[in-house]
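Board notes, transcribed. Complex of a protein with pyridoxal-5'-phosphate.
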Amino acid sequence: MKVQLLDLATQYRKIKKEVLKEVKTVCDSQHYVLGRNVSALEAEIAAYCGARFAIGVASGTDAILLALMAAGVGIGDKVATTPFTFFATAGSISRLGATPVFVDIDPKTFNIDPNALERALSRTKGIKAVIPVHLYGQCADMGAINALGRKYRVKIIEDAAQSIGAEYKGKKAGSIGDLGCFSFYPTKNLGCFGDGGMVTTNNEKLAKSVKMLRVHGSNVRYYHDEIGANSRLDEIQAAILRIKLRYLESWTMGRIKNAGRYDGIFKKAGLDGFVDIPFIEEGNRSVYNQYVIRARKRDALRAHLASVGVGSEIYYPLPLHMQKCYKGLGLKKGSFPVSEKAAAEVLALPIYPELTAAEQKFVVSSIAEFYNK
Ligand SMILES: Cc1ncc(COP(=O)(O)O)c(C=O)c1O
């Protein structure tokens, strides 16, 4: 048996007819950028996330970049975030001439630790915004983070790239902070056929700002109030995303069901002390973009899984404060021990909705085999 980390082909086969029909409609219209599909998708995503506004942009990275710009972040500012995330979170801060202030994570959820965040906010001058990342599909502790946002008067920008549909105490990711950022990269729970992203917000002023910034800071064509970017979502991607959005909730339920099944199989496998299964905070609904275990002898386990045909991945092997490009920050190994330990232990297993019970049993029995259990 072979189990891939992600199987997009099976999903595509189910929606192929609908997708090709809509792509043809867009091609026949010859209207490719910011058209009726983008507007409709924006309304649909806003409704799905429970946010008042949604603005389609070119990628998740650009969503973060434009959200930061709308929040007024620029040269010389500081933005607090986690070092245990995909590079785009911090890279977007740096691209604006601002500096990331890294804050360690909670060891159970892998999300930013609010206590460490408060220490950073109280000690560091010039922090203008915070980017909590809802890693692997689970929301960060937004109650505590929003309270810090109010106390220290900083904007809260949710990096919800991996977490469309995730809930924190009944509120959906992207509707909880000041701005929310989504990615439609193909491996995401709602993925397009290329790059795409979305910014959400309940604040009309911020929404207008992002809308203007995505078209070179212009409200009226060829008149530029601000310096923005070319960061638009195109019609073909929006048309595909509109089809996929209709399936998203059932796909998410499939992921949640698979996660529950893994939890059960792991508990029966007697792997305590070798493997920690994901921890979901009470009141959170994780959408399991990834099912991530902590594993002893992680790299050897991963090699074993590869040898028996099970795909896995490490998200992420090197925390951002230890990346070459951030040498200038003067941080080193040991600066964020919880993130560093996580980077050495995490392993993402296949969790896509179409995964079968037999495949999941094979994944866990292959892990048990490695530990001689
Ligand atoms: C946490 C996180 N932030 C930001 C991004 C950037 O999104 P994109 O690849 O669409 O630019 C991603 C996804 O790749 C991500 O996982």
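The first strand starts at residue 53 and ends at 57. The chain is about 40% helix and 15% strand.
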